[in-house]
Design a protein that fits this description.
This protein has 3 domains: 8-163, Tetratricopeptide repeat domain (Serine Threonine Protein Phosphatase 5, Tetratricopeptide repeat, Alpha Horseshoe); 184-272, Rossmann fold, CATH 3.40.50; 282-447, Glycogen Phosphorylase B (Rossmann fold, 3-Layer(aba) Sandwich). Helix content is 46%, strand content 11%. It is built from 21 helices and 10 strands. Helix 20 links the parallel strand 8 and strand 9 (391-395). Helix 5 (72-84) runs antiparallel to helix 6 and helix 8 (122-135) runs antiparallel to helix 9 (140-152).
């Protein structure tokens, strides 16, 4: 007796349910099962491409769409795949065609805006995002995209309010609902205990820790809830009464706020970004002194971000690509990488500190002894910048709002220099520039009068 083939309508419904629930791997398998018997079905092929794009498998997503009529939905998903592959000119053509077909479709407008943002055409991107929001005012993801574009364009006054839409459907929003406290409005706190929720990745958290002392100056007793690896580091910030992990039960508090909403509450502009209050623990700095040593020009390296981030493959650099730095005379390299990205670490000469770094407090103490940190757009880059240490950050061609187009400096971190890709996926040119500048810096260091 053989199994009856699955009903196509039922299989499609299961695939859609998995897709909408975020179970993308399951959705991909279900779509493929359906298409194995019915490769002519356009809807499942479009949805399969969308799921593969969300899984950061753009080449597979693009292949799914081959031969389909050029509808707006096909063109939008094609453009998303092309963006993932760094083929922005082709993505621009596809999204432009989609808008021509469906000029009032907010998805088409938003996708065209995303490509314009990729290409650094911020005025056009902002205008298109605004049009998309006007056509679908209840779609929070569109408003969040508008907020990010406004922040990238330097329009903080409009950017921070729109950026609040990032919280829709987020783990932070869910945690705040579970806690059930009133959300702080920015008014004087007069000794009230306030729970501040970290958001997103470690780099995002480190960037915005500078606002915690300002909350304390408004009279708040700050309880910080965030990533476990930050607990010791955050405990040393002025005004922080306690730092707890995301999964810890917080002590009784009077109100709460998400960390990335603090700039809006304080009315921060590019000209009024507060300095970071982060510092390394003096006892840990002393403990790391012998481990780092004192010879040569000491450079810390971090080459991998969190692989859970969708664009991590674009922002991270394989360690072997940094080999030219190890060949420079007068340089002592120190690996600051923990977790992912340590494959092949023995192949590039450097002193590997990773196994000895228990958390970011240790990383901060180690960085205190280094002359320079070179890192991809990751927590280590943010940490070095927040500590006021010299840091060169390697930035992909189309980064997020933190690194505006063309900028080599940032008001968030005065000691940071940005080394940007001039072409998508081209790390070789970036590394060659870094090596040339590092060689000159090391030579100047060794010839400096003692």
């Amino acid at each position: 007796m053989t199994d009856e083939p699955a009903d196509p309508a039922a299989l499609f419904a299961r695939a859609l349910a998995a897709h909408e629930a975020g179970r993308l791997g399951e959705a991909v398998e279900l779509y493929r099962s359906l298409l194995a018997d019915r490769p002519d079905l356009g809807g499942p092929r479009i949805n399969l491409a969308a799921a593969l794009n969300d899984l950061d498998r753009p080449a597979e997503g693009l292949a799914c769409l081959e031969g389909l009529p050029a509808t707006a939905a096909v063109l939008i998903n094609r453009a998303n795949a092309l963006r993932g592959l760094g083929r922005f000119a082709e993505a621009l053509a596809a999204t432009t065609q989609a808008v021509a077909l469906e000029p009032d479709d907010p998805r088409a407008l938003s996708n065209l805006a995303l490509v314009k943002q990729d290409l650094g055409r911020m005025d056009e991107a902002v205008a298109l995002f605004a049009q998309a929001v006007a056509r679908a005012p209840g779609e929070e993801s569109l408003r969040a995209n508008l907020g990010g574009a406004l922040l990238m364009a330097g329009d903080f006054e409009r950017g921070w309010p729109a950026f609040e839409a990032r919280l829709a459907g987020s783990a932070t929003r869910a945690a705040m609902r579970q806690v059930g406290l009133p959300v702080w409005s920015g008014a004087p706190l007069a000794g009230a205990r306030i729970l501040i929720h970290a958001e997103q990745g470690l780099g995002d958290t480190i960037q915005f820790l500078r606002f915690l002392p300002l909350v304390a100056k408004r009279g708040g007793q700050v309880i910080f809830s965030g990533q476990e690896g930050l607990r010791r580091l955050v405990s040393g910030i002025e005004g922080v009464q306690a730092a707890i992990g995301w999964n810890d039960v917080p002590p009784p508090c009077d109100c709460q706020a998400p960390l990335l909403s603090l700039p809006r509450l304080f009315g921060v502009t590019p000209a009024t970004i507060p300095a970071s209050d982060l510092h390394a623990d003096p006892a840990l700095v002393a403990a790391w002194r012998k481990r780092i040593g004192g010879e040569g020009f000491k450079v810390g390296l971090a080459w991998q971000g969190n692989p859970a981030m969708k664009a991590d493959a674009k922002r991270s650099v394989p360690l072997d690509r940094l080999r030219p730095l190890a060949a420079l005379p007068g340089i002592s390299l120190f690996g600051l990488q923990k977790g992912a990205g340590r494959e092949g670490i023995a192949d590039v000469p450097r002193d590997d500190l990773g196994p000895d770094l228990s958390d970011l407090a240790d990383t901060a103490a180690a960085i205190a002894h280094l002359d320079l940190v070179i890192a991809v757009d990751s927590a280590v880059a943010h940490l070095a910048g927040a500590l006021g240490r010299p840091v060169w950050t390697l930035v992909r061609f189309n980064p997020d709002w933190r690194w505006p187009p063309g900028a080599t400096r940032t008001p968030w971190y005065p000691t940071m220099t940005l080394y940007r890709q001039e072409r998508p996926n081209d790390w070789e040119t970036v590394i060659n520039r870094v090596a040339a500048d590092l060689g000159a810096l090391a030579t100047a260091h060794t010839t400096r009068p003692r």
